[in-house]
Amino acid sequence: MGGNWREVKAGFATLRAVLEDKLADTDAYIVKIAKAGWIAGQYREKLREKGENFNIFSILKYERKEVKTHSAFLYELLNINGSHNRGNLFLKLFLESIGFRGETAKFNCKREVVIPNKKRIDFVIEDTKNIIIIEMKVDADDSEDQLKDYYEYGEKYAKEKDKTPHYYFLTPDGREPAKSEKVKDKFKRISFAEHIRAFIQKAIRECDSENIRLSLQHYLKVVNNITGQISKGEIMEIEGLINGTEAAMGALEIYRALPDILAKKELEFWDSVAKEIDRDIIEKYPRYVHDTSFEEVKSGSYTNPIREAMSEAIKSAQVLSGGYYGLFFAAHLVKTNRYINLSFFVSLNRINKKLTINFGAECSVYDVKSDKNVPIDFPKPLQLTGKNGNTRYRYFDKELYLPRNMKTNNDPKWGWLFDKAEMQEKIKSTAEEINKFLALYKECEAEVIEKANRAK
After folding, report:
1. pTM of the full predicted structure?
2. Looking at the DSSP assignment, which residues form a beta bridge with residue 328?
3. Which pLDDT belongs to residue 284?
4. Is 164:180 a contact under the CB 8 Å cutoff?
């Protein structure tokens, strides 16, 4: 017995030593993670102190506006008759940056070119031998058959004019088109992260105007922000922390786990907000389970739970199927041969990744006999001026930053998800805004139901 006991003690001693080594490794990883966060914070603080965060696009909240910012600014550069008065200098640098090979001296650029079906191509660059079609998406996805229509237009036009067509799809990270399976291989994928950054950097070096260089520098910061770029110095310091195989693997595992962690924290936020919503409304309008509802996670009745979908969207910078997600409450008041559908929702629009909450409501009457759905407008006090089918909505008057994707988050304003006090403040303020809306909703509810009962 004594011999066996000594062996057991020796075994425990060995196990303890192994565990202590592992714990020491874990502590070292935690220290390194904390230090990496500290380095990032220090760089942000240095930028703030130097005034480097002063950016005209950011101040005006124009960083992610596809048409008013990116399309307009890039076109002004590519336009050989633009206010820069530098002829084809920028157009030449742009074509070089996207990998176009050929003589560029005689090219000209047009913007928002309308094709026969009334759709608009973002940029058409053309000379006597070539036509270059560029479709740009900053946050939104391509719409159904959009690239197919542009491709067919380009092929027909090129054949008629005896030109060679070239097609490009420009996005922040060079992702694939979402809804153009048939022609996606016809479009070369280019990105803001690589090609536009390279173009703007070349333009800064080669431009002789201080005013234009300053504008280019401001725009470059916008490009860096929407593509998640960090400085070389910051990269070098963080590289010093990853000085072994285990450290590298640990960092990789954290990176892989982060999308799911962010999705989980966001769900926690929405579920907490739901608990603060007016009880009268909750009793009358049950939280509805549908294909983009957060309730999927709890019900387990769907093959693609919202948390998994959110995690994948954050990881790959793709758009969630369904576009809208958030809190959704509905009641279906059944009448003879009719269904009166009343609902309200609080959601974020992931289609264009707006950082504002939608307040919305839907009221419609479905007639079983005629198989028709009649939408009902809401009273003016609700200010639901936006329209999408039967839905009426307006935007929340505060910004709520939530993680959009891992590739464009070098300024993680969603860090509040990991701060308990700030999380509680956000839950409280968001619920207060929602309940203000619901108070108006309740006042108008009788009028809405009366309208619905009168609907033909």
Report:
1. 0.59
2. 345
3. 76
4. no
CB neighbour list of residue 252: distance below 8 Å, 6 or more residues apart: none
Which structure tokens are listed for 86? 């530098």
For 4-18, 294-308, 336-350, 353-367, which range has the lowest pLDDT when averaged over its residues? 294-308
Handedness of CA 33, 35, 38, 42 (dihedral sign): negative
Spatial CA neighbour of 379 closest among 395, 366, 392: 392
Percent over 70 (pLDDT), the chain: 64
From the number of C-beta atoms within 10 Å of its C-beta (0-12, 13-18, 19+), residue 328 rates as: buried
Residues 273, 434: Cα–Cα separation, whole Å: 9
* β-bridge partners, 394: 359
**Euclidean distance between CA atoms 345 and 342, whole angstroms:** 11
pLDDT by residue (tens digit) across 392-401?
Answer: 777 766 666 6
Question: Is the alpha carbon torsion for 5, 8, 14, 15 positive or negative?
Answer: negative
**Of 201 and 54, more confident:** 201
Which DSSP helix (H) or strand (E) runs through 295? helix 295-299
The whole-number pLDDT of residue 384 equals 80
Q: Which long-range contacts (CB under 8 A, 24 or more apart) does 229-238 make?
A: 229/193, 229/197, 229/410, 230/40, 230/43, 230/410, 231/43, 233/43, 234/39, 234/40, 234/43, 237/39, 238/36, 238/39
pLDDT of 291 reads 38
Largest CA distance in the chain: 97
- CA distances (Å), 205 to each of 137, 191, 198, 201, 221, in order? 27, 20, 11, 6, 15
